[in-house]
Amino acid sequence: MTPRVRAESRPDVASATAARLLRHTAQALPDGTGPDPGRLRIEWAGPVGADLPDERAVQAACGLMHVHGRATGAPAPLAVDYASVVTGVLAALGATALHIGRARGLELSEVRTSVAQGALLTMGQYLAAATAQGGSGPPDPQAPSASAPEAGDGLATLVTSDGVRAEIETLDPDAWREFWAGLGVPAAVAGRGWGPFQQRFATAVCPLPEALRQAANRCPLARLLTAADRAGVSLLVVGSDPAPAACPDPWELAPESGPGVDGRARIPSPRAATLPARAAELPLAGLRVVECTRRVQGPLTGHVLRMLGAEVVRIEPPGGDPMRGLPPLAGECSARFLALNTGKPVIEADLATAHGRHTVRTLAAEADVFLHNWAPGKAERLGLTAADLLRGSPALVYAWASGFGGAFGERPPVGTDYLAQVHSGLAAAVRPADEPPAPSLMTLTDLLGGLVCAQGVLSALALREATGRGSRVHSSLLSAGALVPRPADRVRWTPLDRPLRTANGYLLLDPRARRSPETLRPLLGGADPVQGAARFVWHTSEEWRARLAEAGLAATPVLTDLTELTRDTAFRRAVAPPDRVTPYARPYAPWEFS
Fold first, then answer.
1. For residue 434, with 0-12 CB atoms within 10 Å meaning exposed, 13-18 middle and 19 or more buried, which class applies?
2. What GO molecular functions are on record for this protein (predicted)?
């Protein structure tokens, strides 16, 4: 029987992240009286019935290594404490929501979360896609099978003839074709790469035609920059320095101070302050959020606020958000879309028309929070800025989730995940020193950015509970990426620090075995443990775990099939399986309030 492995430390990175964010929240509140960290509990495994003694074990068991490693051919750890940072933000969210709930009269005393729950939340879209049932549309042509070996179809990073690594981004297929035409690539060949390039956000793989990689490799960086500039494609050089280019605050919060707001008199919320009796455990029950968002960052913010009890109403274009049709389908809608937007009533509005913009203003006037992740300048063009909406609703919280904030001035790159990873240094930090720097194709900053925006919103709501004033909140993918701690130099690993291939899967050694390789020598016939790591393929994972247990060691099986999360009894309290109402699996809310 495999021995239980005691966690060798508390989740210190998660605790430190939560403490930092709660301090930032308290700075905006009167007399700095913010949420009480003493009401917060953070664990490694939480409701997951498995031994998860550290960050690496959580990544292995919950699917992060599987998704991050898809593009490079085998499960691979993120070389930063990503799950812990996510959990730190979730912990701050839980503590701040509890603070708001108590101010609104709820009898709440404590909130608990865990690093495993944080990790599972980041798997939400991938898990939904892997378990989608009942769809009538075509299968996803780019998605790797959940039960197949890792895809290994490559990253999107290009390498120039002068050895520079570059990341490009565009959401426009015409700009994509024009960029490649500038490198001498025929339109038909460039067109074959558009689907995989766009789908990489959903699948974490980018099987570009080899002809495109070769075309980039024949050209110097200067030519790629010229082609990108002419086509309107964003391009950033992928450096090897893991340090962030900037360290902005997680979010910026500016209290409303216009006419009628003097900081003394409370402004009534547009909605009733009383809580529905049936929602006694949900701190944001009775509050309404109106979101006009797309892709991942903004919808995830609304999703988190909904899980905390708020009513979240989506504004979508006529005919609905195009992402609703992204395969695979769960019933009649994209599983990935539903993973972030289920439970949100939808109102369609054409923002290009006066009537559509009037609809937004009307909805915002009846809301507690208005949230968008529009590109810079769009709110001004629409006449839907914070000043426009707060003028008639001074108690409104107006939240904008951007890509880069003001880091690039008036001409920022496209504000998407992978360029944010590059500029924040994560593209170098997430991989060890013996691998070329490249963004993870798991959407790290989109997910973290959505959570950070939600914490900014809760900070503004906590301020409103104290003063009655609304606020403007701004966060970015860049500010979220800067939250992730990383060493000054890229980490160096031995084979024992990576998942070990066995006869039927992969194992991750426990912290003691990784730290003291000599403990493995007797199990490897006296061979040097680092050199003998390849011998793990001689036996099954189950056999190796039994052998390790006899030596007082342990290993975590590395999840390589996300559907297993719905069958493994260890996850029954953390993951909901598909059912007739919700035809895809999803993680339960990552907090327990009491």
1. exposed
2. transferase activity
What single-letter amino acid sits at 450? G
- List the chain residues with pLDDT less than 70: 1-8, 134-153, 258-280
| 189 and 256 Cβ atoms separated by less than 8 Å | no
CB of 316 closer than 8 Å to CB of 337: no
Question: How many residues comprise the chain?
Answer: 594
The answer to whether the beta carbons of residues 156 and 204 sit under 8 Å apart is no
Strand partners, 353: none
Alpha-carbon span 205 to 201, nearest angstrom? 8
The closest alpha carbon to 321, from 302, 347, 297, belongs to: 347
Instruction: Report CA dihedral (487, 493, 497, 500) to the nearest 10 degrees.
Output: 140
Phi-psi region of 505 (alpha: psi -120 to 50; beta: other; left: phi over 0): left
φ and ψ at residue 13, rounded to 5 degrees: -65, -40
Cβ atoms within 10 Å of 278's Cβ, excluding its own: 8
Which token pair is 139? 């299968």
Helix (H) or strand (E) holding 112, with range, is strand 111-114
Q: How far apart (Å, rounded) are the C-alpha atoms in residues 516 and 202? A: 38
Chain Cα centroid distance, residue 245: 20
Count each helix (H run) and each strand (E run) in the chain, helices first: 21, 20
Q: What is the CA radius of gyration of the chain?
A: 24
Q: Which of 215, 213, 217, 214 has its CA nearest to residue 163?
A: 217
Q: Which of 337, 342, 331, 335 is nearest to 129 (CA)?
A: 335
Question: What's the pLDDT tens digit per position in 246-272?
Answer: 789 999 999 987 544 444 344 455 554
- Whole-prediction pTM value? 0.93
Q: What is the pLDDT at residue 556?
A: 97
CA separation (Å) from 539 to 136, 535, 536, 542, 556? 42, 8, 6, 8, 15
Contacts of 371 (CB under 8 A, 6+ apart): 289, 290, 291, 292, 293, 298, 301, 302, 399, 400, 401, 453, 457
CA distance 126 to 201: 10
Name the helix (H) or strand (E) containing 354.
Answer: helix 354-365
Q: SS in 3 state form for 37-94? A: HHHEEEECCCCCCCCCCCHHHHHHHHCHHHHHHHHHCCCCCCCCCHHHHHHHHHHHHH
pLDDT given for residue 269 in this prediction: 52
Contact 404, 477 (CB under 8 A): yes
Minimal CA–CA distance to 122: which of 421, 437, 450? 450
Give the contacts of 188 (CB within 8 A, at least 6 positions apart): none
Q: H or E element: which one contains 196?
A: helix 187-203
Q: Side chain identity at 33, as an amino acid letter?
A: T
Q: How far apart are CA 452 and CA 287, in angstroms?
A: 19
Peptide bond into 75 cis (omega under 30): no
**What is the full DSSP assignment across 215-278?**
HHHTS-HHHHHHHHHHHT-EEEE--S--S-S----SEEEEE--STT--SSSPPPPSS--SPPGG
CA 434 to chain centre: 26
